[in-house]
Inverse folding.
């Protein structure tokens, strides 16, 4: 997978299986390799929108963890069935 390339003010949300940490594609299947970035991340224009989406994903499926990445490809937020995790 190519490096995530988003604007400075954008944030991307990805998800992983909580029990294994395996990254998931947007459709819920395992990320393996040779996958386009837009199949793994959903991009948002604000941090607040990305964070809200990440929380809603976990609330609808407690078997995943959801994370927010900034334009520097740094994880800035992570949420799982136990709530917000320190990053």
């Amino acid at each position: 997978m190519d490096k995530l390339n988003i604007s400075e003010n954008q944030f991307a949300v990805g998800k992983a299986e909580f029990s294994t940490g395996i990254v998931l594609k947007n459709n819920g299947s395992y990320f393996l390799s040779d996958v386009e970035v837009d199949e793994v991340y959903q991009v948002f224009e604000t941090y607040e929108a990305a964070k809200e989406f990440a929380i809603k994903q976990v609330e609808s499926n407690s078997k995943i963890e959801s994370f927010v990445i900034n334009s520097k490809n740094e994880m800035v937020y992570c949420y799982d069935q136990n709530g917000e995790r320190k990053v």
Q: What stands out?
A: The radius of gyration is 12 Å. The chain has one domain: 11-85.
